[in-house]
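not sure who needs this but someone in the group chat was asking about Putative lactoylglutathione lyase from Jiangella mangrovi so here u go. i didnt clean anything up, its just raw.
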Amino acid sequence: MTTIEHITLDVADPTTAGRFYSALGLDERVRVRASDAPASGFSGFTLSLVVSQPSTVDALVGAALEAGAKELKPASKSLWGYGGTVEAPDGTVVTVASSSKKDTGPATRQVDEIVLQLGVDDVAASKQFYVDHGLSVAKSFGRKYVEFETGAVKLTLNKRKALAKVVGVDPDGSGSHRIAVGGAAGPFIDPDGFAWEND
């Protein structure tokens, strides 16, 4: 199985970004490095933190806001569970969600799963590209959504506009994606310009 061990974000201010991801307990899986690569608008991806219950969502969203994030969607109940969305100081869109609508214990800041959601132009073409590069499909829903078995950081493919709509941002953006995926499959650049580097 091809795995993703970490992701690296290209940021203008590594110190501030590093503090933000440390506040969420993501030091091991999210790295930052200085970059002045031009970019504007939506970078075409989100980081999703999956947690066990609503109070943990609230705890992590609160920690994100204290560490300099901007609220995009307040945490609330939905058909699928409970979650909220913030924009990190470096511009990365981060969602925190739980499939549970009720607490079963005290709040923690435990992240159960990190999901890298890529917004792509053609889900089927990108799926085939990744399969050809050794990734195993875990779930697939036609041309709308694909989930891969990638270990520590889960990878999903979504239509770019649909992903932007879900997290509450304008889908337009240009320039660098400001991210590199670290795993054994790289190095390569996928059809949408997302870069992979050797772990």
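also The chain is about 20% helix and 40% strand. if thats useful
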